[in-house]
Structure formats: C-alpha cells, structure tokens
Amino acid sequence: MRWSPLRLVQKRWKAIYIIGGLAVTSALFSFVNRLPFEWVSSALTAALQFGWIYYGTRIFRGRNELVVSPRAPWRVTAEPTSGFVLGILWLALAAYSILVYFGEQLALAVTGAIEFLLLTGLYLRSSMRLLRKNQR
Q: Cα–Cα distances in Å, from 32 out to 17, 25, 37, 132, 134?
C-alpha cells in the first residue's frame, strides 16, 4: 500500500478548503465565545485559525510546483508575488483588528493582531526567500 499526501492544485478545491475553514472557525468561535474567560476563547479561536491556514500552506500547490514532494518548511506560496499580496492583506487585518476591537473587546483585538502579524511574517519571509532563490 502506498501513501499519497493530500495536495490541492485546482482553484475550486482551494476555495472549498478556505470557505470550509471559515465556516468551522466561525462555528467554533460562537461556541467557544460562551466560555467565561474571554482571553481563552479568543486564543483558542486564533490558534485554530492559524493552524488551519498553516496546514493550507502545506497542501496547496502552484502550477509549477511538484505535487508529491513536500514543500520546504519556510515556503508558504508558490510565487513570491502571491506571498507579498497575502502578507499585506494579513497586515491590514492586524491593523483592522486593533482599530475596531481594541476598545470594547481587548482579548479579540490582541489575539487577532498577534495571529495576523505572525501570518504576515510567515508570508513575507517566504516571499523574500523565494525572490532570493529565483535570483540565483
């Protein structure tokens, strides 16, 4: 018996993965949000979202990538441009989290900003390394 890793190449399967992740984390947040400790529920939700997104970076593949072999641990996108765009979007979400939720929901603002800043760093670092790799 041969093991075949899960890889998502087609855009529709990637979209289903992303939408499914949003549905799962939203449902979990509404369930966990009932916990008496606001920081715990926010941290659990942020950790689940981060894990879901990071796992997606492991199974998504671009047009020019090998499907079977695993990605390098630092690599999260197929092309540097997509990593820069997604990194900037994560940075904008971190700013949004702080600006919108900081006054009334401090835990949500802080945990969301930390999660989004970690993702920003992950995507921008990956793109910088891909640029250096492509220049050789």
A: 22, 10, 9, 42, 44
